[in-house]
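Q: Hi! Curious about what Pectin acetylesterase looks like structurally. Here's the sequence.
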Amino acid sequence: MVNLSWVCIVIGLVYVDAYHINETELSILEAHEASFSFAVNQPHMVGITFIQSAAAKGAVCLDGTLPAYHFDRGYGSGANSWLVNLEGGGWCNNVRSCVYRKTTRRGSSKYMEKSLPFTGILSNSPQENPDFFNWNRVKIRYCDGASFTGDSEDRAAQLQFRGQRIWLAAIEDLMSKGMRFAKQALLSGCSAGGLATILHCDEFRGLFPGTTKVKCLSDAGLFLNAVDVAGGHTLRNFFNGVVTLQGAQKNLPRSCTNHLDPTSCFFPENLIASIKTPLFILNTAYDSWQIQSSLAPPSDDPHGYWHDCRLNHAKCTGPQIQFLQGFRNHMLNVVRGFSRSNQNGLFINSCFAHCQSERQDTWFADNSPVIGNKAIALAVGDWYFNRAVCKDIDCPYPCDNTCHHLVFR
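A: Let's find out. The predicted structure is below.
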């Protein structure tokens, strides 16, 4: 293991940064969570594995191609520990958007990269990932468009909605490769993968004997059923399309669907209180994706009042910041009960960002975001290994000067 005493030297530095993303790329923002990697070394590239047994189970991508994952085997003290990461990348909520999606890596393995950089929580370097670097680390590719929950089809449009089957086929394949012997396991994911982590957390726990330490980490997955700037519910309407089109109802947690409608049960705020497995929620209080796509989308802002603010937090007016503080308050209310459980963890920082566990600069680097002098990687590690209680909530914007804010052109 690496000596981490140097962390204490750098955490006091003042650091504010911004990464520029073209506005048109917003819908695939989570697809870029690892592309802003500022690792000192070249990122470790891991090749793709197609799940050959999946076709017989009907576990296929939107276009009928085989699902896939990237697997880097653990060693030494991590040989019997498994980190399973669910890839993010938005959703498709109608036939048109799903037909488009199947011409991309988010709907077809034909277009997937043959190797991916493993950075942040997936890094194989102890300097970049002190607690999980030598674990078996897996990234399950996302090609269904419903956070691994759908199970239906649209024959006319030649669409297969088989997210739940893909999840099961991938897990079964990994179990055959040694995961059934895991002493420790962590399910993680960012954005749509962070939501999938919440949805499948207890299912993941159920795969292992009681003696296995099993926990879940949701990064940027706390999507809120919030009121948008026009007074409507943009994200709820969108999620309703996803759940209905893809037949996700039957695969959502029963603890929720036995008293709420299926669309409500796609929102983490109605799920997290009933999850039995220890869960860590990592989120920014001003999530860039939610501001852009569910709080202030262009469709709800015909006069462009929010245009500058949604692209760059520094250009928000006083009333706009006040509106965003209301969003933060909604988030804090949602996690209040969840945080009372000793087994759960929390890291909500006051940044305008999205996905922080898979990017090296935000996960663990000299200038990573911190709350109370603790970087995200150390907070997650302390929680997973029961070294310390981690219930960290930042003071409201603009008090945190360690953020890596996202700014859009």
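A: A fun detail: The two ends are 41 Å apart (CA to CA).
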